[in-house]
Amino acid sequence: MDLIESYKEELQLIRKPWTRVWVGAFVLALLLLPWYAPIIFIYTVGVQGQNILIGYTGQISFGQAGFLAIGAFTFGHMSRLGIPWPIGLACAGLAAGLFGLVVGFPSLRLKGPYLAIATLGVRCCCVPGIC
Questions:
Q1: Exposure string for 17-49, b = 16+ CB within 10 A, e = fewer
Q2: Distance from first CA to last CA of the chain, Å, rounded?
Q3: How many angstroms from the chain centroid is the CA of residue 98?
């Protein structure tokens, strides 16, 4: 425990050298955030979807990337057409949800590795087909 001997030391914001390094790295990360924030948020959506599906239900599904790609593709086309982003976002969610229903109903009876293989096939068909 470091004892403070003067009022000047009390007013010092960062006392240890390693703390200065970490604060500097944090400030640098905040400066770079506007360039990397969109991709971080996109990956966050995908990771949270996988967390809900695998973490809470225990089902292995690889189709999440395909549904994310369909939503992104729909939103991109909606924004290119000049549609406001809240409507485009709703349309993207609706398109991904409808495709999920089309794929989900035949996959309802599948369990374990068969569900994983079926959703991997969906992912392999969606992502290259969109790109």
A1: eeeeeeeeeeeeeeeeeeeeeeeeeeeeeeeee
A2: 58
A3: 20
| Four-CA torsion 45, 25, 28, 34, nearest 10 degrees | 0
Instruction: List pLDDT tens digits, range 84-129.
Output: 989 999 999 999 999 888 888 888 888 778 888 888 888 788 767 6
Nearest to 119 by CA among 51, 74, 65, 40: 65
Q: Which two tokens stand for residue 114?
A: 């068969």
Fill in the amino acid letter for 16: K
The token duo for 50 is: 């996988």
Q: Which of 2-6, 11-15, 112-116 has the lowest mean pLDDT?
A: 11-15
Q: Which residue has the tokens 């001997």?
A: 5
- Give the whole-angstrom CA distance, residue 62 versus residue 27: 36
